[in-house]
Amino acid sequence: MGADLAGKVVLLTGATGDIGIAYIMALTEQGANVVATDLESFSETGREIADKATAQGAGQAVFAGCDITSDEDLQRVVDVAGDRFGGLDCLVNNAAIYRTLGPKRTLTELTNDEWDLVLRVNVRGCWQSIRAAVPAMRERGGGRIVNIASVVSRTGAAGFAHYVASKAAVEGLTRAAARELGPEGIAVNAVSPGLVDDAATRDINDANYLERMKSTRSVPRSMDPEDLVGAVVWLCGDGSGFVTGQTLVVDGGGVFV
Ligand SMILES: NC(=O)c1ccc[n+]([C@@H]2O[C@H](COP(=O)([O-])OP(=O)(O)OC[C@H]3O[C@@H](n4cnc5c(N)ncnc54)[C@H](O)[C@@H]3O)[C@@H](O)[C@H]2O)c1
Hints:
Elements: E1 9-12, H1 18-29, E2 33-38, H2 43-56, E3 61-65, H3 71-85, E4 90-93, H4 112-140, E5 143-148, H5 152-155, H6 161-181, E6 186-193, H7 199-204, H8 207-214, H9 229-236, E7 247-250
Parallel strand pairs: 1-2, 1-4, 2-3, 4-5, 5-6, 6-7
The chain binds nicotinamide-adenine-dinucleotide (NAD).
């Protein structure tokens, strides 16, 4: 592969889950320098992944702890991008409460606290991350924001009403941000993955469900984290600047929009 993102600086949230790891490896392989972030409690793993990506990639990765609901943490990691790599071009908003959703619960069983936590992290945190990153992108004269949504906003998913609502909100936020930031050369899009066969999905779904999902796809196989990287890399690159406010579904042709 060529180095399509050579010289770009990317801030990636939620970097230590299986999908986040695939993004770091692909972004650095494409020449980007990546500030990979996740909750401080994952810093040991995060540093190991960043070191591996730096060793293998054309770009470098550095890990920094960041809770996306903390404005102070977000400012600190934007500053890391400036101090280590000279600025910020792209934000990949991948962090979310997903693996830690716990067992499926009907919408009559969900509590206000469970609802508020998922919406606070998955929606407010996504917006806070954009708010923190935009001033640094303005200094570069433009940028790219990629928000990670989910096809469950189209298909629904019994047992996760709060999560489904949060991912639908991420799509709405994407369109609002695209309208506001387009005049400044900042393109904002969402990538909407289907059900990925990763550790997080296996924690919260039974294996039969994963197996059944295969037959719902035009490409009838399980989906891997690596299936997502092409879309994210492209949306971070120079070639996609006139694409904004869109949601790109990557699910093997299960849902057509
Ligand atoms: N796995 C799937 O099937 C699937 C499908 C569609 C969309 N997605 C989305 O893809 C993204 C990655 O999913 P994943 O499977 O790797 O899940 P995951 O739960 O393993 O990863 C999410 C990451 O976000 C981090 N995170 C949670 N709260 C945070 C906070 N307050 N601040 C900073 N980081 C926080 C977690 O520590 C974790 O590393 C998520 O946005 C998820 O909703 C996943």
